[in-house]
Write a sequence for this structure.
C-alpha cells in the first residue's frame, strides 16, 4: 500500500501568559492508502493540535509548529507556500469538525458552501458545481437534496448538518479525510447513523481517514490502527484489535478499565485513573503519565520512554511490561 | 434488588410540563406549547438509583427539575413521603427542599465564580439555618474531605479547580444539608473519560455511606447500566420503558430501547464486528407538535396503523417491567 502521509517529530507550542505550553511533543505516524487511523485521547492531550499543525491551521501567534515534518505524498506540508497548501486543503486532504453548528457560514446557502470547493479546486462553473453538490448530498442521505440547496445551515438538524459537512468535505474526492470528533455533539442514535455513513463512504470512495475522538467505543468498530495520545505524545500505537485486546501502556489499560459496558454488567467498582492530565510547560524528563501511574518504577521518573516494541506492529511508550511488572 | 418490597420515597403521578410559546412584544399571545414532559409516572424507592435515559430534548432534565419544583408542573403530582410537593409553596416547600438536592451537568456554570468554595458549600447551611458561622466552616471542611478534596480549599475560587474537582464541589454542596434524595442531572457528561469513573465511584461510595437515593439522569447508557438499580427510558416527554437494570439491558421490549441499545458503541473491536445494528432513520420530531398516537411511531421500524391512532398505554407486562407499546 502506498504511503500517503508520513509525520515525523511534529512539535507544536503555544505561547501563553503563564509560559510556553508544549501541546505536541514529537509525534510520528504514518497513514497508508485506504487506512483508517483512530487518534484517541482526553481533552488537552494534543490530538486536535496534531492534525491542525499538519494542515497549518494553527493560529500563529500564539501557536507555532517548532519542529518536524509532515510529508504528504513525499512533499512536506509544513514547508509549502501558502498557495501550494491551499491546493491540498479541501481538495486532497479535507476535514470535518466537531461542531456542525459553528463550522458553517450561517449566511450562505448549503448549496453555495458545498459547491464552493469544486469551483475553487476543480475550476467548475456554478452550474456544474451545483449538480455535483446535489449528487454528493444525495450520497450522504439528504432527502430531496436538489430542493434543499437553497436552504441555510440553521434549517437543518444537527445530524443532517453533519451529513452536509461530510458531503462538503468529500465533494472533491480527497485521498485523506480528517474527522475531528465528528459525533461528539450528537445523540447516540444519530451518532450511529453518521458512523455507518462514514464506513459506507469509505468503502465506496476508498479514502484514508484519520478519526479523532475521546470515545474508545466509537472508534473500536471503525479504525484499522489506533494511536493513543497523552500529554502531547503518542503513548501507544497498534492495530485496533491488538490495542484493545492487549493494551501495553498503563494509561490505555486504565482508560479501558474505567469504561462501563452496555453489553455486560460490571459488578465491581470502575477503575479510575487518579489525578489529572498534565499541562506541559517544558519538555518532560520523566514519563508524563508517571504521577498517575500504578506501575511506576524508578526509570520512569528520570527518563521519558520512547515508543518501544511490545508486539507485532505494537509500540508503547512504557518502560514496564504490564504483565511481569519488570522493565521490558 | 429490593424493587417492590422497598419503601417508596418519591412518587411521580402523571406529571406534565408544557412551556408556552409566546408571540408579541407588548401584548403576548400564547401560540403553542413545548410538550417537554407529557404524562410521566414512576416511583423511586428509598436507597435505590433510578436511571433516567434518553436523547437530548426528550424531557429528562425537565422531569428532574419539575420534581424539585424548580419548574411548577402544568398538571400531575409529585409526592415525597406522601406530601404533595406540587401544592405546597413558600416556607413549607423550602423546608422540603432540604430533603432533595441536585447536582448539575455543567461544573463550570453551576458554581458562582465570585464566591469562594467555602461560601458555595456553606450557603445551603446558612439558608436552612443549620449551623452558625464557626459550625459552617467545620462542616464545609468535613464535606470537602468527604468528596476527596482538601479542607484547605475553603478560601479558593472555582476557577482554580479542574472540571472533575468542580463536580466534587457540586456534590459536596448537595450533601451539605443531609438530603435523602439527590437528582443527578448528567453529572459526568462534561467530564473526561478517566475523570468520569472517579466521580461515579464517589457517588456510589456516598450512597452506601449515607443511604442516599439517586435519580440519575444521563444519556450514556453504559454508565447508567453500571450505576442504576432500575432504568427508565424517555422519548419525547414520555416514558417508553421502565424495568430493572437486568431486564432492561438483557431483555429490552420496546423497539426504541432496542434501537438505543444497539446504537451504543462498545469499546471492543471484536464485539463490534459481530454486532447487528438497528439504525433508526431520521431525527427526533419536535416536541412542539409531537406525533399522534405513539410518539415513537415516525422512527419505529415495526410501526403499524394503530400506532398513529392510539396512544399506547404504559402497562406492566412482567412484574416490575413497564412498557408503552401496542406491539409488546
Amino acid at each position: 500500500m502506498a504511503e500517503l502521509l508520513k509525520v515525523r517529530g511534529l512539535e507544536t507550542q503555544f505561547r501563553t501568559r503563564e509560559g510556553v505550553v508544549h501541546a505536541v511533543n514529537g509525534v510520528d505516524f504514518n497513514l497508508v492508502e485506504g487506512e483508517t487511523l483512530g487518534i484517541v485521547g482526553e481533552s488537552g492531550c494534543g490530538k486536535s493540535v496534531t492534525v491542525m499543525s499538519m494542515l497549518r491551521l494553527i493560529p500563529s501567534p500564539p501557536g507555532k509548529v517548532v519542529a518536524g515534518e509532515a510529508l504528504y505524498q513525499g512533499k512536506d506540508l509544513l514547508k509549502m507556500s501558502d498557495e501550494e497548501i491551499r491546493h491540498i486543503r479541501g481538495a486532497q486532504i479535507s476535514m470535518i469538525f466537531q461542531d456542525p453548528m459553528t463550522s458553517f457560514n450561517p449566511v450562505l446557502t448549503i448549496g453555495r458552501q458545498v459547491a464552493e470547493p469544486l469551483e475553487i479546486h476543480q475550476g467548475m462553473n456554478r452550474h456544474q458545481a451545483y449538480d455535483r453538490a446535489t449528487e454528493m448530498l444525495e450520497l450522504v442521505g439528504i432527502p430531496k437534496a436538489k430542493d434543499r440547496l437553497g436552504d441555510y445551515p440553521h434549517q437543518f438538524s444537527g445530524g443532517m448538518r453533519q451529513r452536509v459537512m461530510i458531503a462538503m468535505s468529500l465533494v472533491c474526492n480527497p485521498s485523506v479525510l480528517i474527522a475531528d470528533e465528528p459525533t461528539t455533539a450528537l445523540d447516540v442514535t444519530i451518532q450511529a447513523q453518521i458512523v455507518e455513513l462514514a464506513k459506507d463512504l469509505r468503502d465506496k470512495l476508498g479514502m484514508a481517514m484519520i478519526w479523532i475522538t475521546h470515545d474508545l467505543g466509537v472508534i473500536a468498530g471503525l479504525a484499522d490502527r489506533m494511536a493513543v495520545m497523552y500529554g502531547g505524545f503518542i503513548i501507544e500505537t497498534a492495530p485496533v484489535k491488538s490495542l484493545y485486546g492487549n493494551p501495553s501502556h498503563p494509561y490505555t489499560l486504565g482508560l479501558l478499565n474505567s469504561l462501563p459496558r452496555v453489553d455486560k454488567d460490571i459488578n465491581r467498582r470502575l477503575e479510575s485513573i487518579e489525578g489529572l492530565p498534565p499541562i506541559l510547560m517544558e519538555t518532560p524528563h520523566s514519563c508524563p503519565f508517571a504521577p498517575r501511574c500504578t506501575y511506576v518504577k524508578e526509570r520512569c521518573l528520570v527518563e521519558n520512554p520512547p515508543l518501544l516494541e511490545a508486539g507485532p506492529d505494537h509500540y508503547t511508550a512504557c518502560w514496564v511490561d504490564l504483565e511481569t511488572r519488570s522493565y521490558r | 434488588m429490593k424493587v417492590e418490597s422497598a419503601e417508596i420515597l418519591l412518587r411521580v403521578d402523571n406529571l406534565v410540563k408544557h412551556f408556552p410559546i409566546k408571540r408579541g412584544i407588548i401584548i403576548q399571545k400564547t401560540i403553542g406549547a413545548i410538550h417537554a414532559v407529557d404524562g410521566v409516572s414512576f416511583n423511586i424507592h428509598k436507597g435505590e438509583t433510578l436511571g433516567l435515559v434518553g436523547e437530548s430534548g426528550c424531557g429528562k432534565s425537565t422531569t428532574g427539575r419539575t420534581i424539585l419544583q424548580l419548574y411548577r408542573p402544568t398538571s400531575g403530582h409529585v409526592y415525597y413521603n406522601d406530601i404533595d410537593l406540587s401544592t405546597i409553596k413558600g416556607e413549607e416547600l423550602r423546608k422540603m427542599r432540604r430533603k432533595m438536592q441536585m447536582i448539575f451537568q455543567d461544573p463550570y456554570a453551576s458554581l458562582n465564580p465570585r464566591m469562594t468554595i467555602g461560601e458555595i458549600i456553606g450557603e445551603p447551611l446558612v439558608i436552612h439555618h443549620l449551623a452558625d458561622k464557626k459550625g459552617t466552616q467545620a462542616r464545609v471542611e468535613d464535606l470537602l474531605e468527604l468528596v476527596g478534596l482538601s479542607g484547605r480549599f475553603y478560601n479558593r475560587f472555582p476557577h482554580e479547580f479542574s472540571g472533575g474537582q468542580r463536580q466534587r464541589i457540586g456534590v459536596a454542596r448537595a450533601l451539605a444539608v443531609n438530603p435523602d434524595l439527590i437528582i443527578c442531572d448528567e453529572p459526568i457528561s462534561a467530564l473526561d473519560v478517566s475523570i468520569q469513573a472517579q466521580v461515579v465511584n464517589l457517588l456510589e461510595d456516598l450512597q452506601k455511606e449515607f443511604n442516599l437515593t439517586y435519580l440519575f439522569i444521563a444519556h450514556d447508557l453504559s454508565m447508567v447500566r453500571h450505576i442504576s438499580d432500575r432504568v427508565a427510558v424517555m422519548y419525547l416527554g414520555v416514558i417508553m420503558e421502565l424495568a430493572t437494570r437486568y431486564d432492561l439491558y438483557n431483555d429490552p421490549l420496546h423497539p426504541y430501547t432496542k434501537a438505543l441499545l444497539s446504537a451504543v458503541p462498545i469499546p471492543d473491536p471484536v464485539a463490534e464486528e459481530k454486532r447487528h445494528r438497528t439504525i433508526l432513520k431520521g431525527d427526533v420530531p419536535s416536541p412542539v407538535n409531537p406525533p399522534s398516537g405513539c410518539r415513537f411511531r415516525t422512527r419505529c421500524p415495526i410501526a403499524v396503523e394503530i400506532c398513529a391512532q392510539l396512544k399506547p398505554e404504559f402497562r406492566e407486562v412482567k412484574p416490575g417491567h413497564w412498557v408503552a407499546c401496542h406491539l409488546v
Summary: The radius of gyration of chain A is 21 Å. The mean pLDDT of chain A is 90.
